[in-house]
Amino acid sequence: MNIKILRGRILSFKTEPQGIDDKDSYLYIEDGAIAIEGEKIVALGSFNKVRSKYKQYKLIDHRPHLLMAGFIDPHIHYVQTQVVASYAPNLLKWLYNYTFVEEQKFINFTHAEQIAAKFFTELINNGTTTACTFCSVHPHSVEAFFKESEKHNMAMIGGKVLMNRNCPDKLRDNPQLSYDESKRLIKKWHNRGRQKYAITPRFAITSTPEQLEAAGALLAENPDCYLQTHLSENKDEIALTKQLYPVHKDYLSIYEFYGLLGEKSLFAHSIHLSESEKDLMAQSNSVAISCPTSNLFLGSGLFNMQQMKKAGIRIGVATDIGGGTSYSMLQTMGDFYKVQQMNNYHLNPLSSFYMMTLGNALILSMEEEIGTLEVGSYADIIVLNSRATSAMELRAKTINNLSEELFLLQTLGDDRSIVQTYIAGKAAKYADKS
Ligand code: GUN
Ligand code: ZN
Fold first, then answer.
1. Which of 257, 296, 361, 419 is the most buried if burial means most Cβ atoms within 10 Å?
2. 245 φ, ψ (degrees, to nearest 5)
3. Sequence-ordered strand ranges (E) for 38-189
4. How far apart are CA 131 and CA 170, in angstroms?
């Protein structure tokens, strides 16, 4: 088998940084190398040490750039690529006026295929190598998504949206149909190659109790699958949810009642949780996914990371395209930082980069495969240029250490900072000419 060696500055996290000076939380090698055989990383270390292991290899010299594990986006809607930047006063109006209109177009399989292809291009250009994705209510939107994912050999998670009320007729399924279609899609796609399936009730407002029951049955029968939905994003959404489910104590208790909580359950937004909802989320090991660009754009609220962590909740950070405004995890973390500033918490850049890689891998229970550059991991690797624009170049002249460089990347960086994206060892952003 051929060996490929990538040379550059290596950064890979080992644990969650406990502060800006926590050098034990990561591995950094100034003149480092990653050896790749097939889809996987087979050696990591100083360039001289890695090179000495092999008689023959193909060298790709990425100096002076940083080599890191690919970014992971744990909440995004591929069917909303043409919803981004839609003007609306709040979540529910944005959903009814734009999102549901756009998602109806996925009744057409060709449209789904075209958008799926463009969506993957955006992810790759932005250095995102794994994402957990909502498809539309149409089963063939899932087919288009996984077909494209398989083509790129990406570790992707996706699922058919379940919704049977409070939406246009053309977007409605019913509990039995949604159960049957999801079951078939799970059988076909879950654990096929690098693909994984997420059971996807959109949120309590668009599902009847019978449909949430069907989602619970699917999860009970397929405990290895993910569960993804939305929770407590917007005050009007919470009020309407309470009206629709009057017997339940609060929003999260509805999902609990239908058996939807657990360590592979991902609750996007989770902004306005009561203390008992936080306790329930922590006890059930469920995951809260913050979507900062979306929350700012839709005026939904400020996710309080410190309070959520204090409650013992597992946290991920995601783009939430098309409520979110950027495919870039760098931009997303830039806004996450600003949201925490508004909460008087000053997230350090090491933690930001940990969250985009190993942190998001851990909340998806995928840390054995992705999120680090450890030997045995898939070679999902990105090459980052901290001087990608003239403004970055100028600012970079005054940088003194790694943390400052990372902070610059998350504040001014975007797709232009992604020099290359390797997926399972293959250069995917630009053709590998060397
Ligand atoms: N809540 C229910 N559906 C959606 C959606 O598509 N985007 C966001 N941001 N929130 C939702
Ligand atoms: Zn969402």
1. 361
2. -130, 65
3. 40-46, 58-69, 71-77, 128-134, 157-159, 161-162
4. 27
> Is 110 in the same domain as 163?
yes
Q: How far is the CA of 405 from the centre of ligand 1 (A)?
A: 34
Shared domain check, 382 and 243: no
- Which sign, positive or negative, has the C-alpha torsion 46, 50, 51, 52? positive
- Residue 273 in contact with residue 230, Cβ under 8 Å? no
In whole angstroms, give the CA distance from residue 61 to residue 134: 37
Atom of ligand 1 nearest to the CA of 291: 9
- Respond yes or no on whether the N-terminal peptide bond of residue 322 is cis (omega within 30° of 0): yes
66 forms bridges with which residues in the sheet?
9, 384
Are residue 96 and residue 15 in the same domain, yes or no?
no
- Which helix (H) or strand (E) segment holds residue 145: the answer is helix 139-152
* CB 131, CB 156: distance < 8 Å: yes
Length, in residues, of the chain: 434
From 75, 95, 96, mutation site for ligand 1 pocket: most ligand atoms within 8 A of C-beta: 95
> Considering only CA atoms, which of 113, 105, 101 is closest in space to residue 142?
113
Shared-domain flag, residues 143 and 115? yes
Q: Which helix (H) or strand (E) holds 287?
A: strand 287-290
Q: Is there an atom of ligand 1 within 6 Å of 70 CB?
A: no
Q: Is 77 in the pocket of ligand 1 (CB under 6 A)?
A: yes
Provide the residue type at 270 as one letter. S
- The reply to whether 25 and 81 lie within a common domain is no
Task: State the residue range of the domain holding 19.
Answer: 3-70+371-427
pTM for this prediction: 0.98
Tens place of pLDDT per residue across the chain (434 aa): 699 999 999 999 999 999 999 999 999 999 999 999 999 999 999 999 999 999 999 999 999 999 999 999 999 999 999 999 999 999 999 999 999 999 999 999 999 999 999 999 999 999 999 999 999 999 999 999 999 999 999 999 999 999 999 999 999 999 999 999 999 999 999 999 999 999 999 999 999 999 999 999 999 999 999 999 999 999 999 999 999 999 999 999 999 999 999 999 999 999 999 999 999 999 999 999 999 999 999 999 999 999 999 999 999 999 999 999 999 999 999 999 999 999 999 999 999 999 999 999 999 999 999 999 999 999 999 999 999 999 999 999 999 999 999 999 999 999 999 999 999 999 999 876 44
Residue 234 CA: which ligand is closest?
1
Ligand nearest to C-alpha 293: 1
